Amino acid sequence: MDWSAMIGWGVGFGILVAAEMATGTFYLLMLALGCAAGAVAAGLGLALPLQVAFGALVGVGATVAWHLQRKREPASRPAQSNPDVVLDIGQQLHVTAWAGDGSARVNYRGASWSAQYAGRGTPAPGEFRISAIHGSVLQLVPVDHH
What we know:
Number of helices: 3
Distance between the termini: 68 Å
Helix content: 40-55%
Shape: rod-shaped
Order of helices and strands: HHHEEEEE
Number of domains: 2
Strand order of the largest sheet: 1-4-5-3-2
Structural class: alpha+beta
């Protein structure tokens, strides 16, 4: 067992993890896994070229796997229409009257808000759902009663 090679791989692992924490680049963690694999190879007594090959194979393989996984996931919605970011998205409210330009004043959460119709056709008074918030203007769509 070559302790100096294992320590070298461990230092590389630590540097990559620290760099990931500083930058938020998750791919660096995948490369850190490659360093960990190199340390395991050193612990098994493999020669330096095999350690490098094993570390590179694991690091690059993990990076490619992570990239492909991220590519398969759907793109996240913009923050102003993402219910994971803005908890008001999807909430319902009642509109008593619409102006000719598709705007309205509505009461929501105990305050008066500006609203804009974001649905199709001409808006009519009734129940609406918040689909997005642009600044302090609620974007409203009709509630689907199906």
